[in-house]
Write a structure and sequence with these properties.
The chain has about 450 residues and is of the alpha/beta class. It has 13 helices and 11 strands.
Length: about 450
């Protein structure tokens, strides 16, 4: 998200998205050929946005400085409950650049345009941003808003990053969002250490989401399986910036959901209001959200949203798209596939009793034989290919948690006696196919 990030407290100098460049040696991990079937759907229904009650005047507070497989019903993520994610949201990068940092104006604009949750930056790497503080959270709560913190993480100091996230929770955040991007590619041990340290501080049930790259197949070495694995994030907010990616709203939904449903968590689409995308695409993005499960979107970001695009956030839509059916298949994994989705499948296979499968991120002969054995045990055609039907059965099992951050014995017999997993799967060395979202300009 965004470009160069300077800490609101003046201490941060790291570059967000600095690794977002095209790989010199692109590889094809999974072929994607999305086919969409259109059927006659029920007529449009009117969806009224809930209007927030009149806001009390609040004293001004100065801002702190794969080709699809099969044709059966696709795996659906769990239905979300009443959480801060269940209100249309807007992301704030810098509070003092959002309506000048005036809390009454922020509250009034949110009420006018149907925004119920604010996502405010609270940290960058191991640095805490002072703009996210208890006074700010309490003032916004009094204005009827949910307030979530988000932090950009790099993986260089994962425990320090966990402390920053936990500090935001102590300051009153209603949820926490992990913004992990190119810097975390290949860093399985760091992701494991971060998740463990964070959950130890905020608890296992605190609402935690990942806002990462939307195109999973473009990033075979990104540790999605750690961030979304046992003890990790339980909500997904993929950065579906269609205009920045250079595609259509429809395509960004179809590509993103084809892969992201496999993590098994509710998907709350994160759309863009920067780069002036326009009223019609924003309304279309909201209607596609209705068609893909009805979970409300959030938007990046407040300070870059034009008056025209604000009005599109508060406008009434016509509900789900008429005559459109979302994709109903899942990506295929087979011998020769590689990447984090293979890690995910292997962790589920081990949980399902196929303990001979190593978690490598490479789909070889051992994995194919394990898939065939699993399929036979489930009464499925034993072809050794993981398609939609096999994914449905496989995801009924909780994945094993691979302890990538486990300590290793140094050498000799002691090492053999205390053998632990590698610090990363073999697939962690794969380059990105491409970076669909380029880093933004410095503010």
């Amino acid at each position: 998200m965004g470009g160069r990030q300077t800490s609101a407290s003046g201490s941060g100098t790291d570059v967000e998205g600095g690794d977002c460049h095209r790989a010199e040696t692109p590889v094809t991990v999974l072929r994607v050929d999305v086919k969409v079937r259109s059927i006659e759907a029920p007529g449009p229904r009117l969806v009224l946005l809930a209007i927030l009650s009149a806001m009390a005047s609040i004293a001004h507070m100065p801002a702190a400085t794969a080709s699809p497989g099969g044709t059966s019903q696709a795996v659906e993520p769990p239905i979300a409950s009443d959480t801060p994610f269940d209100r249309q949201g807007m992301w704030i990068w810098y509070v003092d650049r959002s309506d000048g940092g005036s809390i009454p104006r922020i509250v009034a604009r949110a009420a006018r345009f149907g925004i119920g949750t604010l996502y405010i930056k609270a940290g960058d790497g191991g640095d805490t941003w002072s703009q996210f503080n208890t006074s700010l959270v309490e003032a916004l709560h009094q204005g009827g808003l949910d307030v979530c913190a988000w932090q950009f993480v790099y993986g260089e100091r994962p425990v320090a990053e966990a402390r920053v996230g936990a500090a935001a929770v102590r300051r009153g955040a209603d949820c926490l969002v992990i913004d992990a991007e190119g810097s975390y590619e290949g860093r399985y041990a760091a992701a494991d250490r971060y998740v463990q340290a964070l959950r130890a501080r905020i608890g296992e049930s605190f609402p935690l989401s990942l806002a990462g790259f939307p195109y999973v197949d473009y990033h075979p070495s990104f540790p999605y399986s750690v961030f979304f694995g046992p003890g990790g994030a339980t909500y997904s907010q993929p950065q579906m910036y269609w205009k920045a990616i250079g595609t259509s709203v429809r395509t960004v939904y179809e590509h993103t959901y084809l892969f992201n449903r496999l993590w098994g968590h509710p998907i709350y689409p994160l759309g863009q209001t920067y780069e002036s995308p326009g009223r019609k695409p924003i309304l279309s993005f909201r209607r596609f959200a209705e068609s893909y499960g009805g979970l409300p979107p959030s938007w990046w970001d407040w300070q870059e949203t034009s008056a025209r695009d604000w009005s599109a956030l508060g406008a009434t839509t016509n509900g789900p798209l008429t005559g459109y059916r979302p994709i109903d298949s899942d990506p295929v994994l087979k011998r020769g596939s590689r990447g984090d989705l293979v890690v995910w499948a292997q962790e589920h296979l081990r949980s399902a009793g196929q303990t001979q499968v190593p978690v490598t991120g490479f789909y070889g002969g051992v994995t194919r034989a394990a898939v065939r054995a699993f399929q036979g045990a489930q009464g499925l055609p034993a072809d050794g290919v993981v398609g939609t039907t096999t994914w449905q059965s496989l995801l009924d099992f909780e994945p094993v948690r691979t302890r990538w951050a486990a300590r290793h014995a140094r050498s000799g017999r002691a090492a053999a006696a205390r053998a632990t997993p590698a610090r990363q799967p073999l697939s962690a060395s794969l380059p990105a196919v491409a970076y669909e979202i380029n880093p933004g300009p410095a503010p």
